[in-house]
Write a structure and sequence with these properties.
Number of strands: 11
Strand content: 15-25%
CATH class of the largest domain: Alpha Beta
Order of helices and strands: HHHHHEHEEHEEEEHEEHHEHHEH
CATH topology of the largest domain: D-amino Acid Aminotransferase, Chain A, domain 1
Oligomer: single chain
Shape: globular
CATH superfamily of the largest domain: ATP-grasp fold, B domain
Number of domains: 3
Low-confidence stretches: none
Strand order of the largest sheet: 9-8-5-6-7-10-11
CATH architecture of the largest domain: 2-Layer Sandwich
C-alpha cells in the first residue's frame, strides 16, 4: 500500500473498517507525507472498537449504559452471579451486529456459555437485557480535528434481524435531539476525528437511551443518510482535503431505507416460520409482516443496494449467494 500511494497521485485514503482500519491508524504517520487519511488516533480508535473500553469510558463520563459486568473468567462470574438479574447477554468485546451475542436465561447456564464464547471470541462482557419497546437509534457524526461536530444524523430502526438484536434491515431518518446530544458528547469527550456511529437503545423502564456500542467505520445503513441529504463519504473527503468544512445542520426527516437483499428477506422468513421471541420481544403477525414487507414502492423509501442509476452493485448483491455456492 505504501508503494501505491508513493507512486500514484491520491488525495485521500478511506478505510472501510476491520483490522485494516486498525493497522492503517497505527501506521498513519508513515502515509501522511503522501496522502490524507481522515482517521482518529490509534489509541482512541482502539477505545471505540472494543465494547469493554467504550463502556468503561462512557460510564466514567456519565453516558447512560446498561448495567455491565467486566469479567475475565469463571471465578469473576461466581463473584457477581448473585447480582445478576436474568436474562442477561454475553457479548464479545469486539464484534459486529449480533455475532457472538448469547442470551442467558438461567444462572446455571452462564459459566458454561461464557467459557465457550470466550474460547471463540476472546474478551467478553456480561450485560443486562434492555427490554424491547423503547426503540433503537443510531447517531452518525462527522468531526473535525478539534473534535467539533460538522455533520450529524439520527436514524431509528424499524426492523432488525435477528429480532432480538442484530443488523437493521429497515430504518428511518428522524429528529431526536437527545440521541444526537449523547452521541456527539461521547465522541467529543473521546477527542474524535472523522466518522463514527453511536448506537443506543431506549430503556422503556425509565425512557433513558442506553449506549450499546460505537461503530468507528462506515456503517451498513449509510445509504439512508446520503439520501436524506448528509453525504458522509463526500463530506469526509472534503474535510480531509480542506482541513474543515461548514457545519451541516439539517437533513430530510422521514426517509426510509431497506436492506432488501438479503437481510430484510431473512426477517420476513423468520416471521413466516414462526419466530421465537423470548423475554418480552414482540413477534409481529405473519399477515401484518407480509403486508408491510410488500410495500416496495412506498414514498421516500430507498434501497441500500438497488438503484436504477447504478444497477451493478444491486445485481452483484443478488447474485452473491450463487458465487458462494460456486466457490
Amino acid at each position: 500500500m505504501m508503494n501505491e500511494v508513493k507512486n500514484e497521485r491520491y488525495d485521500v485514503v478511506l478505510s472501510l473498517g476491520g483490522e485494516g482500519m486498525l493497522a492503517l491508524s497505527k501506521h498513519r504517520d508513515l502515509f501522511l507525507p503522501y496522502v490524507k487519511i481522515p482517521l482518529v488516533d490509534h489509541d482512541i480508535l482502539i477505545k471505540a472498537s472494543y465494547k469493554t473500553e467504550t463502556l468503561k469510558f462512557a460510564l466514567k463520563n456519565h453516558i447512560p449504559c446498561p448495567e455491565t459486568f467486566f469479567v475475565n473468567d469463571a471465578d469473576d462470574i461466581k463473584k457477581i452471579i448473585d447480582e445478576l438479574a436474568f436474562p442477561v447477554i454475553i457479548k464479545p468485546s469486539r464484534s459486529a451486529g449480533a455475532k457472538g451475542l448469547e442470551y442467558i436465561s438461567k444462572s446455571e447456564d452462564l459459566i458454561r456459555s461464557f467459557e465457550k464464547a470466550n474460547k471463540i471470541y476472546g474478551e467478553m462482557l456480561i450485560q443486562e437485557l434492555i427490554p424491547p419497546g423503547g426503540g433503537a437509534f443510531g447517531f452518525e457524526g462527522l468531526f473535525n480535528k478539534q473534535s467539533e461536530l460538522r455533520a450529524g444524523f439520527v436514524h431509528q430502526r424499524l426492523r432488525e434481524f435477528p429480532i432480538t438484536g442484530g443488523s437493521s434491515t429497515f430504518r428511518i431518518s428522524v429528529d431526536n435531539p437527545e440521541i444526537e446530544e449523547l452521541g456527539a458528547r461521547l465522541l467529543k469527550k473521546m477527542g474524535w476525528y472523522g466518522l463514527a456511529m453511536v448506537e443506543f437503545k431506549v430503556d422503556p423502564r425509565d425512557n433513558i437511551p442506553k449506549l450499546m456500542e460505537i461503530n468507528p467505520r462506515f456503517w451498513g445503513s449509510l445509504p439512508l443518510s446520503i439520501s436524506s441529504g448528509v453525504d458522509f463519504p463526500f463530506l469526509l473527503c472534503n474535510l480531509a482535503i480542506d482541513g474543515d468544512i461548514p457545519p451541516i445542520t439539517e437533513y430530510k426527516k422521514g426517509v426510509k431505507a431497506r436492506a432488501l437483499f438479503y437481510e430484510d428477506f431473512k426477517y420476513l422468513l423468520a416471521v413466516m416460520k414462526g419466530l421465537d421471541t423470548p423475554w418480552g420481544y414482540h413477534s409481529p403477525g405473519r399477515l401484518e409482516t407480509l403486508r408491510e414487507f410488500c410495500r416496495f414502492f412506498e414514498k421516500d423509501c430507498i434501497y441500500d443496494n438497488l438503484s436504477w442509476e447504478d444497477p451493478v452493485p444491486g445485481i452483484l448483491k443478488i447474485l452473491s449467494p450463487l458465487a458462494r455456492l460456486y466457490h
